[in-house]
Amino acid sequence: MSKIRKNTLFAFIFALLLTFIFLVFGALPIASADWDQNIIEIDATYEVIPEEMVVHVSKEFIFSNHDTDTRLWRGYYSILNYRLPNGIKNIRAYDGDDDINLFKLDAKCDYYTFEFNKNIWYGKSYKFNVEYDIPVQKNTAAFHINKNGDSTKVTVSIPDEYEVSINRNDYTKTQQSDKTIYSFDKGLNWDRSCFVDAVHVTEMKVINDIIHLTEKDIKITIEFWDGEDEWANEMMRTATESLPVLEEVSGLSYPTDYDITITQATLADTLGYGGSNNGMDGIILLHTENYETLIHELAHYWTRECNFETIWMDEGYANLYTYLVLEQTHPDDAAARKEMYFEQYETMKPTHDISLSEWKVPDSFNSENANEVDYGYRKSFVLAYNKYENEGLESIQVSNLKK
Ligand SMILES: [Zn+2]
Fold this sequence. Notes:
Blueprint: H1 8-27, H2 29-32, E1 39-49, E2 54-64, E3 77-83, E4 89-95, E5 98-99, E6 101-104, E7 111-120, E8 125-135, E9 140-145, E10 151-159, E11 163-166, E12 172-176, E13 179-184, E14 194-199, E15 205-212, E16 217-224, H3 229-250, E17 260-265, E18 275-277, E19 283-286, H4 291-305, H5 311-329, H6 331-352, H7 370-391, H8 393-402
Parallel strand pairs: 1-10, 16-17, 17-19
Antiparallel strand pairs: 1-2, 2-8, 3-7, 4-5, 4-8, 6-7, 9-14, 10-13, 11-14, 12-13, 15-16, 18-19
Helix pairs in contact: 3-4, 3-5, 4-5, 5-6, 5-7, 6-7, 7-8
The chain binds zinc ion (ZN).
């Protein structure tokens, strides 16, 4: 600024102008300037560190101001708002040796504001680093890699004893002493979140319990890996609590004569889905799934018994029963789940509408078929729910008995 301070009046006006521009551009760059012209390059590394029970993430950002509205000293950028995942710890940002300030935009959202240590004028770039840890379990590390910048390079490093599945396959795999490195080149599309599931499969532990249903006693067995006791107990609680409610809402007592085994599974076991009900062979459930998915899989014992001719009825009613069980056991979740399903149905309808009579659930779920599969589940729930709303639960129960 020293060069233009020759004229004090001019300097004063210019300072005023800069203050104004800083307020507008600095605080709200997206609203006022052409933010889209800027380029954010990111080089991200995700390292699974079992001893510390974390995935250590480090990201190098290069922010380049290409916003023509800031040309000729008409403003600059001094902050970046960037989304970091929920539940992370040890967040740190720095450029070279200096820490840079960061704060959360508001407690509810995941956006952070990074305050650069200098003003980035038109044509200039700024390099800084962000590091944080994602807490994981003793033998399992599951995490998402989210939409990132304009040109993103991603490297994932996982110890060899882990079984790994990643729900996209455009990476190259290399071996490095006792680790496997998965590299995603610059320029790939990160619009959809990528899920990494790494499991150190240990010998299975078992808990079981007997539950008294209307017509019979059923033995519930949960098989799980070392360190996953909390998950196992929650699934036992869910099964014990949900099975009697499923009898009640469907109007049918537990319809098969075998006991139920629920086995903790990797993403590779479930072929990308949250779980699957394999009848007599029991239920396999992805280790990252919670009670909602288990209720859905348990509900299939009833929907299968109804011999629905189409998949949409099987899945639609499994999700309707899940909703009706949650309404009694976790009312807030029931309402949120219903709202989310309806909302996603409406959003996806214009681009993904399909006739449910032709809808099939593919053998495996991945980033290529995700939208189509998700839409089918949403639409079949909406149809089943509307039938329940219009005709009442009793009419559904009567048609259950007729099958
Ligand atoms: Zn299902």
